[in-house]
Specification:
The chain is mostly helical. It has one domain. The chain is 48% helix and 5% strand. The protein has 7 helices and 3 strands, in the order H-H-E-E-E-H-H-H-H-H. The chain has a 3-stranded antiparallel beta sheet with strand order 1-2-3, with helices on one face. A hairpin with a 2-residue loop joins strand 2 and strand 3. The chain is globular, with a radius of gyration of 24 Å. The N terminus is likely disordered. This is DUF7143 domain-containing protein. InterPro entries: DUF7143. Keywords: Signal. It holds the Pfam family DUF7143.
Length: 195
C-alpha cells in the first residue's frame, strides 16, 4: 500500500531538493567566439589560440571599423583605431618605429601600455585572417611584440616562450618589414641590442 507513495516521493526528490550543480572544468566549457572574429576563414591554430586567449580581455566597438570593416578592438582602454598604422602615410614598419618608441632603457616603459597596444593588434590580425584580408598588419604587430620582449628583458622578466624572445622577434620584424629602407632595418637591429 505504501510502496507506490514511497516510489512517487522518491521520484520527485531530485526536483524538490536543492542539488548543487557541478560545473565542468574550463577545458570542457565552450568559449564564446571572440567579438572581433567576424569572418569564416579557418584560422591557423596559433592564431586561434591567441584569439581565444584575448576573448576575455579585448572588447569591440562595432560603431567604429578602422581596418577592413572590422570592429574597433579595445584592450585596457587602448583602442586600435587610435594607433592604426593605416591612418599614416608611412610604411607599416616605419609607422611602428615612430609610434611605438620605448625610452632608454626600455625598462622604464610601461609594459601594461605596450601589452594593451599589442593585444589590439593581435586581435585585429586574427580578425583580418578570419576574413581572408590583407596582412600588412604583421609588420607593426611583430614590432610591438618585439618591443614588449625588449621591455620584459630590460626589466629582468624571464621569457620562457622561445617564440617571444627579442632575438626571435627581431627576425620576424625584419622578415615582414616589406619595402622599408635599410636605415629602418638597421634601427630595429640596433634596438635589439639596447636593453
Amino acid at each position: 500500500m505504501h510502496i507506490p507513495i514511497l516510489l512517487t516521493t522518491l521520484s520527485l526528490l531530485p526536483f524538490t531538493l536543492s542539488i548543487p550543480l557541478i560545473s565542468m572544468p574550463s577545458i570542457f566549457r565552450r568559449q564564446s567566439t571572440p567579438c572581433f572574429l567576424i569572418g569564416t576563414t579557418p584560422l591557423p591554430s596559433e592564431t586561434l589560440k591567441i584569439a581565444n586567449d584575448l576573448a576575455s580581455i579585448v572588447t569591440c566597438d562595432a560603431s567604429i571599423r578602422p581596418l577592413q570593416n572590422i570592429p574597433d578592438t579595445i584592450s585596457g582602454g587602448v583602442r586600435f583605431s587610435s594607433i592604426n598604422f593605416e591612418d599614416s602615410d608611412l610604411l607599416p614598419l616605419d609607422f611602428a618605429l615612430t609610434t611605438f618608441k620605448t625610452p632608454t632603457p626600455p625598462s622604464s616603459a610601461s609594459l601594461t601600455l605596450f601589452t594593451n597596444r599589442l593585444n589590439t593588434y593581435l586581435s585585429q590580425e586574427a580578425a583580418v585572417r578570419s576574413i581572408g584580408g590583407s596582412l600588412a598588419i604583421k609588420a607593426p604587430k611583430f614590432f610591438l611584440a618585439f618591443q614588449v620582449a625588449r621591455i620584459k628583458q630590460s626589466k629582468g622578466i624571464v621569457i620562457t616562450d622561445p617564440g617571444q624572445t627579442v632575438e626571435h622577434l627581431l627576425e620576424k620584424v625584419l622578415k615582414n618589414a616589406g619595402r622599408v629602407s635599410q636605415v629602418t632595418k638597421d634601427e630595429v637591429t640596433r634596438l635589439a641590442k639596447e636593453l
